[in-house]
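Thread amino acids onto this structure.
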C-alpha cells in the first residue's frame, strides 16, 4: 500500500543518511590523516546562533513569567518547553525498539518447541517454524536499523541542547556586571562550557528508559507468567527491587557530582590564574605553594570521584551478575514446585530476562545517574544565568561594589561638559571615572550625559588571539589610507615592516608574543581607528619610553585626534600644557576649571606647571631613527598525533594507576569472573539434582568476582587519571616561560578541563565496559564451540570482517576525535580572552561580533562532533547488520532442540555483545586521544632543576654583587638574540637605573637574571655562577616588583606570604610601609578577605603596592623593579621610591623605568639599545654628552622637566652615595666593561 511504501521510503532515507554520504570521507581517512579542510560544513539546524537564540527566547519568557509570579525562574522548565516536542517523538521509537526485543524471545520459544517435538512429516509445523524464523530474521534486521536511527537522533538532541547552552553562557558572560563577575570566575565558566553542558550529550540517550523500563517489565512479567507460572515473580521481584536501588544510586551520584563540580571550578580557576601569571610565579619561585593548592583541590575532587566510581562499579557488577542471580532464583523455585526444566523454557526465560536486563540494570540506572547529574548542571547554569547584568542604557555615576565609601562623588551644585581635550590627574580614581562614563560600575547617584559614540583604550593593554590587523580594525572595514595613517601615528609602521608576516602576524593569547610597548600601541591604534565621537584614553603612554610617548602624544593624541573630544588619563605631567581642561582627582572627584589649575592642585603639579616652557604647538618632534625590533614570537598551532594509539600508550595509562603486581591481579580476576559467568547457563543442562548446587556456586562466584573486578578496575583507572593530572601539572610548572608565550590559555585549560573530565568519568566506564564485553564475547564463543564446534566456521570469517571494519573505521574516527579536541581549544581561548577584554568589547559595542566569533568556533567544533556521531553510527550499523546475518544463518540450520536453543540464545547475545564490544573498543581508542593529549603535556621541555646538589650559603647573597660576563640571551633556541655580548657589574648596595627605548632589551635583562630562559655566557651573584644553582635557590634570593602586577584569587595573607613564613605583625608592617594598611583594614575580613579573580577589586597602582610589600617581606639583597611605576601617579611613584631608598638602602637595586625622574637619582644608569649596552655611568656624566641616547631621552621630556632632571643628577654627583664604594673587602671577581 502507499502508506507502507512511504514508511519504507522514510526508513531507507534515514538509513542512507547514516551510511552512504560518509563513504567518501572514510576513503580519504583510510589513505591519509584528515585535516580541518576535509570537514563538512555544519548543518543549519546545528548552528550555534540559531540554537542559542531559540533557547534564549524560552529562557527570557520563563524569566518574565517568573517575575510576574514573584518566584525564581527555572531554567529546567525553559529547556523542557524548548525541546519536549521533538524529543517526545523519539520516545515512540524507543518503545517500538524495546517491544521488538520482547517479541524476539517469544518467537524463539515457538521455534524451540517445534524442534522439541520435531516430526519430519509435520509439514504444517515446518511452515510455522519457517514463519517464526522469518519473524526473528525481520526483528533482527529491524533492530539493526532502527536502533541506530534512534540512537543517532537522541545524540543529535543532546548536541543541540549542549550547543544552545554554550551560546547562552557566553552571551551571558558578555553582559555580566562587575559585581556579578566577582561572584564567578573564568575557571567556573570554562567548567560550565566543558563539563556541565556535556552531561546533556548522554542524558538524551537514556532518558526515555525511565518510562519505557517499567512498561517493559510489566509486559515481560505477563509473558513469563505464561511460560513458567508463579516462579517468575521471584525474578521480577528482584528486578523491581533493583529500580529503587538504582534511584538511590542516582541521588548519591548527584551529591558527589555537586561536590566534584565545585572543586573542579576551583581547580580550573586556579589553573587559569597559574597559566596567566606563570611568569610572575616563576620569578617569585611560588610553584610549590600553587602545586599544593591545586593538589589540595584535586585530592578532594578524586575522593568524590572515587566514591562515585565505586558506585558505578557496583552498578556494573549488578548488571554483570543480575541476570544470573535472577535465573538462579527463578529456576530454583521452579524446580522446588515440582516442574521439569526443558530447553525451550530455559532459553525463552533467559532471553526474556535478557530483553529487560539491559533496560532495567543498565539503561534505567544510566538514565537516573545522568538525570541527577544533569539537574545539578542545570542548577549551576541557572545560577550563572541569574547573575546580575550590566544595565543596557545607563548614564550615571557609580561606585565599586567592594568599597563601602564612595570613590566617585558628583560635585554638589555643579556640572561639567567635556571640552576638546581633558586631562585627568591621579592619584587614584581616574580609571573609575572612565568606568563610570562607560557605564561599567553599579548605580549610586548623579547623572552624566554622554552624547555620541565612545571608544576606549584601557590602562592594561588588551589584545585578543588573531592577527595584528584584526586587533586594530576590530571589526571595521579596512581603509588602506586611514589604516596607514593610524599605523604611523601609533609608531607601529616599522614594527609591521620587521615582523615576519607584517600586520598579518598571528599574536598569541594575552598578546604574549608581543612586548608590552607593542601591545600598548596596538591597543591605542584600535581606539584611534574607530570613527568615534569621544575618545577615553586610560594612561596609554605609561608602557612606552619617552621618545615613543612623545610621538604618540604629538602625532596621535594631538595629531590624528586633534578635532575629537578626548579624555586622557595620564601620570606624565609634561603633556598637560596642551589640555583645554585639567581634572585633578583625589579621593573625591573635584573638577578644577579652567586650565591652568590653581594652588588647590598637588604641590608636584604646581611645580611642574609654574615655569611654562614653549607653547604646546612647539613640542619636540619624534626622532626619525628606526626603532629596534622588539622581541616578538609567533603563536604556534596546536599539534595532533598521527596514526593508531600505541600499545605503549595503554601500558603507560594503566601503569600510572598501579604497579605490575596489581595489574596481574586485575587480569586474573577478570579471567576468573568471566569463566564463572560463561558457564552459568550451560550448567542448567546438568540434571536437576546437581542444577541448584552447580548453578548456585557459579552465580555466587560471578557476583563476587564481578564486584571485585569492577571496583579494582575503577580504582586503577581513577588512580591513573590522578597520577597523569599530577604529572601534567608538575610538567606545566616546570615548563619554560616560552611555552606559555606561544600557547594560548584555552589550549592548556582544554587539557585540564575537558580532557581530564573525560578521563575522570567517560574513559573508566567505557574502558571497563569494553574489557568486560570483549571477555564475555570470548566466553560465549568458547562455550558455543564446546557445544556446537562447527559454529567456529561462521565465527572466524565474521571476526576477520569485524576486525577489518574496526581498523578501517578507526583510521578516520581517530582523526575526527583528535580534530574534535583541537577545535575545542579555541572555544575556551576565545572565552578567556573575551573576559579579559570585557570593558573594551562593551565600550566598542562589539559584543555581537565577539558572540559571532564564539559561534563560529562552536560551529567548527560541531562539525567535528557531528562527524564523530555519524561515523560511529556508520560503524555500528554495519556491525549490527553483520551480526543479524550471522544469527539468520544459524536460525535456518537444523539442529537438535537443546543445541539450537543454546546456539540461538548465545548467537542473539553475541549479536549485541560482539558489535558492542568492537564499538566500545573503538570508543576507548577515541577517548584515549584525551590520554594522548594529556601525556603530550607530561613530556614537555623542562627548565633547569629547582634545586641542585650545589646549594648556596644560607646568607647568600650577603653583598649583592651582580656580574654579567659575555651574556647573550634568547627566549628560545630558535628565537632572535635579544641581549648581545652583555658585560656589566652591579656593585653591592648600588642603585642602578636601566633605560632604553621600547624593545631595547630592558625586561630581557631581568629575564636573563632570573633565568626564565637559559642565557649564554656567565652571570655571577656574589661570585657564585647562577647557572650552577637550582632555579628556586636563585629566584628566592632576589625580589622583583614586576611590570604587570599579579594578584591571585586567595586571601590577602596568601598573596603576601604563600609560604606562611611571616608573622601577622610583619605583614601589617609591610602594608603600613606601602600605605595599604588602611585599605586592607576596611576589607570585610581584613587580611583573610578573599580577593576577586586576578585582584580586580584593587586598582593597578594598589596591586603594584602589594608587590612592593612582598619585596619588603622577602628582605633580599637584590631588588629588581621592572617598570613598576609605569601605571601609578607621581605621588605613588614617589612613595615607592622613598620606600625603596629607606627599606632597601643596603640592597643592590636595579630599576627599569620609562619615567626618568624615577631613576635620575641612581648611582649609575645603564642605557640599552638594540640589546646592547650603549652607556653605563653616573647620570650627570651621561648628561654631559649631547649626542648620547640618555641626553636625548631627557630633552624629550620637555624643557622644564629636563632642567629638573639635570639638577637632580647634578645633586647626586655632588653628594655621591658612598654605600657601594666601601666594599673593598669583598673577595669577588668583577668583570667591568670599559665604556
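Threaded sequence (1235 positions):
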Amino acid at each position: 500500500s502507499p502508506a507502507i511504501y512511504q514508511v519504507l521510503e522514510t526508513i531507507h532515507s534515514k538509513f542512507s543518511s547514516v551510511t552512504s554520504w560518509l563513504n567518501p570521507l572514510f576513503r580519504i581517512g583510510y589513505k591519509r590523516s584528515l585535516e580541518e579542510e576535509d570537514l563538512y560544513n555544519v548543518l543549519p539546524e546545528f548552528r550555534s546562533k540559531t540554537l542559542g537564540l531559540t533557547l534564549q527566547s524560552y529562557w527570557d519568557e520563563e524569566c518574565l513569567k517568573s517575575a510576574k509570579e514573584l518566584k525564581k525562574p527555572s531554567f529546567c522548565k525553559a529547556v523542557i518547553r524548548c525541546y519536549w516536542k521533538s524529543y517526545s517523538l523519539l520516545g515512540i521509537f524507543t518503545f517500538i525498539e524495546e517491544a521488538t526485543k520482547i517479541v524476539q524471545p517469544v518467537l524463539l520459544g515457538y521455534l524451540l518447541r517445534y524442534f522439541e517435538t520435531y516430526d519430519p512429516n509435520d509439514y504444517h509445523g515446518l511452515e510455522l517454524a519457517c514463519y517464526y524464523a522469518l519473524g526473528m530474521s525481520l526483528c533482527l534486521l529491524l533492530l539493526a536499523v532502527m536502533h541506530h536511527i534512534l540512537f543517532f537522533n537522541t545524540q543529535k538532541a543532546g548536541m543541540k541542547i549542549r550547543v544552545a547552552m554554550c551560546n547562552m553562557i557566553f552571551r551571558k558572560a558578555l553582559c555580566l556586571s562587575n559585581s556579578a563577575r566577582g561572584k564567578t570566575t573564568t575557571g567556573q565558566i570554562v567548567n560550565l562550557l566543558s563539563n556541565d553542558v556535556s552531561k546533556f550529550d548522554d542524558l538524551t540517550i537514556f532518558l526515555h528508559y525511565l518510562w519505557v523500563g517499567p512498561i517493559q517489565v510489566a509486559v515481560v512479567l505477563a509473558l513469563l507468567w505464561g511460560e513458567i507460572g508463579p516462579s517468575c515473580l521471584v525474578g521480577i521481584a528482584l528486578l523491581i527491587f533493583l529500580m529503587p536501588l538504582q534511584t538511590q544510586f542516582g541521588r548519591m551520584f548527584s551529591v558527589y557530582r555537586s561536590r566534584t563540580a565545585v572543586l573542579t571550578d576551583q581547580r580550573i580557576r586556579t589553573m587559569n590564574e597559574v597559566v596567566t601569571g606563570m611568569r610572575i610565579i616563576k620569578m617569585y619561585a611560588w610553584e610549590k605553594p600553587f602545586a599544593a593548592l591545586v593538589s589540595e583541590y584535586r585530592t578532594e575532587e578524586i575522593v568524590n570521584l572515587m566514591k562515585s566510581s565505586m558506585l558505578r562499579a557496583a552498578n556494573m557488577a549488578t548488571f554483570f551478575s543480575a541476570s544470573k542471580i535472577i535465573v538462579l532464583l527463578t529456576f530454583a523455585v521452579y524446580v522446588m514446585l515440582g516442574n521439569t526444566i526443558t530447553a525451550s523454557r530455559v532459553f525463552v526465560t533467559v532471553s526474556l530476562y535478557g530483553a529487560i536486563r539491559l533496560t532495567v540494570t543498565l539503561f534505567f540506572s544510566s538514565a537516573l545517574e545522568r538525570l541527577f547529574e544533569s539537574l545539578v548542571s542545570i542548577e549551576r547554569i541557572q545560577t550563572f544565568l541569574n547573575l546580575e547584568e550590566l544595565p543596557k542604557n545607563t548614564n550615571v555615576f557609580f561606585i565599586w561594589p567592594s568599597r563601602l565609601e564612595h570613590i566617585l562623588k558628583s560635585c554638589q551644585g555643579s556640572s561639567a561638559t567635556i571640552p576638546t581635550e581633558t586631562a585627568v590627574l591621579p592619584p587614584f580614581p581616574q580609571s573609575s571615572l572612565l568606568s563610570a562614563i562607560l557605564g561599567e560600575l553599579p548605580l549610586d547617584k548623579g547623572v552624566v550625559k554622554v552624547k555620541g559614540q565612545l571608544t576606549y583604550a584601557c590602562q592594561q593593554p588588551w589584545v585578543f588571539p588573531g592577527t595584528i590587523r584584526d586587533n586594530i580594525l576590530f571589526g571595521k572595514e579596512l581603509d588602506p589610507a586611514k589604516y596607514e595613517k593610524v599605523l604611523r601615528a601609533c609608531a607601529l609602521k616599522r614594527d609591521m615592516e620587521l615582523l615576519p608576516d607584517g600586520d598579518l602576524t598571528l599574536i598569541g593569547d594575552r598578546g604574549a608574543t608581543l612586548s608590552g610597548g607593542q601591545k600598548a600601541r596596538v591597543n591605542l591604534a584600535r581606539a584611534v581607528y574607530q570613527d568615534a565621537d569621544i575618545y577615553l584614553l586610560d594612561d596609554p603612554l605609561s608602557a612606552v619610553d619617552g621618545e615613543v610617548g612623545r610621538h604618540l602624544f604629538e602625532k596621535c593624541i594631538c595629531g590624528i585626534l586633534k578635532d575629537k573630544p578626548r579624555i586622557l588619563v595620564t601620570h606624565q605631567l609634561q603633556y598637560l600644557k596642551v589640555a583645554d581642561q585639567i581634572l585633578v582627582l583625589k579621593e573625591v572627584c573635584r573638577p578644577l576649571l579652567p586650565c591652568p589649575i590653581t594652588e588647590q592642585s598637588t604641590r608636584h603639579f604646581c611645580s611642574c606647571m609654574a615655569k611654562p616652557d614653549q607653547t604646546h604647538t612647539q613640542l619636540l618632534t619624534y626622532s626619525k631613527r628606526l626603532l629596534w625590533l622588539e622581541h616578538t614570537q609567533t603563536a604556534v598551532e596546536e599539534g595532533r598525533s598521527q596514526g593508531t594509539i600505541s600499545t605503549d600508550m595503554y601500558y603507560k595509562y594503566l601503569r600510572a594507576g598501579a604497579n605490575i603486581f596489581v595489574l596481574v591481579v586485575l587480569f586474573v580476576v577478570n579471567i576468573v569472573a568471566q569463566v564463572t559467568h560463561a558457564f552459568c547457563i550451560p550448567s542448567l543442562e546438568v540434571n536437576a539434582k546437581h542444577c541448584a548446587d552447580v548453578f548456585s556456586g557459579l552465580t555466587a562466584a560471578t557476583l563476587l568476582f564481578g564486584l571485585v573486578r569492577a571496583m579494582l578496575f575503577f580504582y586503577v583507572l581513577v588512580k591513573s587519571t590522578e597520577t597523569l593530572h599530577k604529572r601534567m601539572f608538575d610538567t606545566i610548572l616546570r615548563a619554560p616561560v616560552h611555552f606559555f608565550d606561544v600557547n594560548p590559555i584555552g589550549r592548556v585549560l582544554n587539557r585540564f578541563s575537558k580532557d581530564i573530565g573525560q578521563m575522570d568519568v567517560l574513559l573508566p566506564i567505557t574502558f571497563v565496559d569494553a574489557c568486560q564485553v570483549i571477555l564475555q564475547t570470548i566466553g560465549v564463543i568458547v562455550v558455543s564451540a564446546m557445544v556446537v564446534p562447527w559454529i567456529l566456521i561462521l565465527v572466524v570469517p565474521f571476526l576477520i570482517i569485524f576486525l577489518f571494519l574496526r581498523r578501517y573505521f578507526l583510521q578516520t574516527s581517530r582523526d575526527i576525535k583528535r580534530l574534535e579536541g583541537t577545535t575545542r581549544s579555541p572555544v575556551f581561548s576565545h572565552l578567556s580572552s573575551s573576559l579579559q577584554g570585557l570593558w573594551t568589547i562593551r565600550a566598542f559595542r562589539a559584543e555581537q561580533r565577539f558572540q559571532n566569533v564564539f559561534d563560529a568556533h562552536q560551529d567548527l567544533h560541531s562539525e567535528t562532533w557531528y562527524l564523530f556521531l555519524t561515523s560511529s553510527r556508520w560503524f555500528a550499523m554495519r556491525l549490527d547488520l553483520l551480526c543479524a546475518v550471522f544469527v539468520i544463518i544459524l536460525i535456518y540450520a537444523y539442529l537438535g532442540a537443546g543445541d539450537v536453543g543454546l546456539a540461538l540464545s548465545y548467537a542473539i547475545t553475541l549479536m549485541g555483545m560482539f558489535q558492542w564490544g568492537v564499538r566500545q573498543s573503538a570508543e576507548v581508542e577515541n577517548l584515549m586521544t584525551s590520554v594522548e593529549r594529556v601525556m603530550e603535556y607530561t613530556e614537555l621541555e623542562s627548565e633547569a632543576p629547582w634545586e641542585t646538589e650545589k646549594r648556596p650559603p644560607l646568607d647568600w647573597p650577603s653583598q649583592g654583587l651582580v656580574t654579567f660576563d659575555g651574556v647573550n640571551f634568547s627566549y628560545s633556541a630558535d628565537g632572535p638574540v635579544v641581549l648581545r655580548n652583555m658585560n656589566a657589574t652591579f656593585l653591592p648596595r648600588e642603585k642602578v637605573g636601566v633605560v632604553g627605548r621600547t624593545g631595547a632589551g630592558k625586561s630581557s635583562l631581568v629575564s636573563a637574571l632570573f633565568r626564565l630562559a637559559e642565557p649564554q655566557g656567565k652571570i655571577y651573584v656574589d661570585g657564585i655562577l647562577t647557572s650552577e644553582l637550582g632555579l628556586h635557590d636563585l629566584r628566592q634570593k632576589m625580589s622583583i616588583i614586576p611590570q604587570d602586577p599579579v594578584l591571585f584569587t586567595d586571601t590577602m595573607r596568601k598573596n603576601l606570604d604563600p609560604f606562611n613564613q611571616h608573622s601577622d605583625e610583619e605583614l601589617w608592617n609591610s602594608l603600613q610601609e606601602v600605605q595599604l594598611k588602611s585599605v586592607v583594614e576596611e576589607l570585610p575580613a581584613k587580611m583573610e578577605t578573599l580577593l576577586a579573580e586576578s585582584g580586580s577589586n584593587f586598582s593597578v597602582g594598589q596591586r603594584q603596592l602589594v608587590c612592593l610589600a612582598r619585596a619588603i617581606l622577602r628582605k633580599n639583597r637584590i631588588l629588581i623593579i621592572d617598570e613598576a611605576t609605569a601605571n601609578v601617579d607621581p605621588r605613588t611613584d614617589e612613595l615607592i621610591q622613598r620606600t625603596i631608598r629607606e627599606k632597601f638602602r643596603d640592597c643592590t637595586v636595579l630599576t627599569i623605568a620609562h619615567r626618568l625622574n624615577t631613576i635620575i637619582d641612581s648611582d649609575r644608569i645603564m642605557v640599552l639599545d638594540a640589546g646592547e649596552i650603549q652607556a653605563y655611568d653616573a647620570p650627570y656624566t651621561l648628561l654631559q654628552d649631547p649626542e648620547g641616547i640618555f641626553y636625548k631621552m631627557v630633552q624629550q621630556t620637555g624643557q622644564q622637566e629636563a632642567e629638573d632632571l639635570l639638577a637632580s643628577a647634578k645633586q647626586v654627583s655632588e653628594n655621591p652615595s658612598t654605600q657601594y664604594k666601601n666594599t673593598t673587602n669583598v673577595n669577588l671577581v668583577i668583570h667591568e666593561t670599559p665604556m
